[in-house]
Design a protein that fits this description.
Elements lengths: L9 H20 L2 H7 L5 H29 L1 H20 L4 H29 L5 H26 L6 H22 L13
Helix pairs in contact: 1-6, 1-7, 2-3, 3-4, 3-5, 4-5, 4-7
Length: about 200
């Protein structure tokens, strides 16, 4: 019988740590994004569209992300999603027009949904049944702490240039993708679940 304080699988801590890094990085770009959009000589409404594009694409792509997880498994969808956000965020840093920034930010929303849905599925699947509440709390806490800390750090980074937070976030996502990919590569717990009837 598992005790309440039993150690959680290493894979859980990898995902919780990656969640913090991803949320922290998302917060890094939050203070810079509206100002960066306005730097292309657009109005406030157009700047808010860039902010909303990320969330809109997350919403639109959520059902497809679930289907991808079912077909390909959580780990590859997670890694691909993080890499999409990393590349699109890096591209945002080098955007030369408002429309480029809008497209790159929207692509990031697709990747964000991919890793969010796959991480949730993987966390639920590998968490010990009697610790799922604890694991959910840890995962949510890590994400919320990143959301709190990110804008504070991002606000300071804006002083070095509006593009800097995007570069730092992109690099942190590449590191997170590498760590998760390597850590879960040989994991029996993170291996794809057998298909029904197998």
């Amino acid at each position: 019988m598992r005790t309440r304080d039993a150690a959680l699988p290493r894979e859980i801590w990898v995902l919780v740590s990656a969640s913090f890094v991803i949320a922290l990085g998302f917060g890094l770009v939050a203070p810079a994004l509206p100002q960066f959009a306005r730097s292309f000589d657009v109005g406030i409404t157009a700047a808010t569209v860039v902010v909303s594009a990320f969330a809109a694409m997350r919403l639109a792509f959520a059902p497809a992300s679930g289907a991808l997880v079912q077909k390909l498994g959580e780990r590859p969808v997670y890694i691909t999603g993080v890499l999409i956000v990393a590349l699109s965020t890096g591209a945002c840093a080098f955007a030369q027009t408002y429309w480029q920034l809008l497209v790159f930010r929207g692509l990031g929303g697709i990747g964000s949904t991919m890793f969010t849905v796959s991480a949730l599925g993987l966390i639920i699947r590998i968490a010990p049944p009697d610790a799922r509440g604890r694991v959910s709390g840890l995962y949510a806490t890590s994400f919320l702490l990143g959301n709190i800390g990110g804008p504070l750090v991002g606000g300071a980074l804006v002083g070095f240039g509006l593009r800097v937070p995007f570069v730092i976030y992109a690099v942190s996502l590449l590191v997170a993708a590498a760590v998760v990919g390597i850590s879960l590569r040989g994991s029996a717990l993170a291996a794809p679940a057998p298909a029904d009837g197998a």
